[in-house]
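Hey, I'm writing a tutorial for new members on how sequence and structure tokens pair up, and I'd like a real worked example in the thread rather than a made-up one. If someone can provide the structure for the chain below, I'll link this post from the tutorial.
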Amino acid sequence: MITRRNRDLVLGIYPTTRGFGFVLMSSPLSPIDWGTRGARGANKNAQCLTKVARLIEIHQPDVIVLQDTTAPDSRRSSRIRRLCRSIAALAAGQAIDVQVYSRAKVRAYFEGFGARTRYEIATAIAKHVTAFEHFLPPPRKLWMNEDTRMSLFDAASHVMTYYWDGDEEVHNAA
């Protein structure tokens, strides 16, 4: 079991085709900073890595949380997989702990809140973390591209899973 400290600053990063979403939290319901960062053109990974390095420099997190792109249920592109490995290497080079969680693990946590789909998980997060309420995009229609703000909620779901993973009381309360 991984021991969680109350003072852990946890940076969740969720890469997308257009950049990444991030959330910095000091507890499951206490966001400090959040947002999305874009990357365009060639070398998106280099652009994203530079922006992640800047976030690390500014916030000095204790832990970085990423999606487990090696899990059997992961359908991430090879570029995103490489980016996640690069982010993990960057963090390891600065002695920052890296935790990865599969979609299945995140879903298992949020099922306790009655949320199974990504949008239901985002809605549950917005309900419990009031700072995120106005960032919740409308439900996606089949013909629509995914809203960039969803990456913020994906990052938050992974950070909340990190806190839950080390705290059986939270899991049993859900």
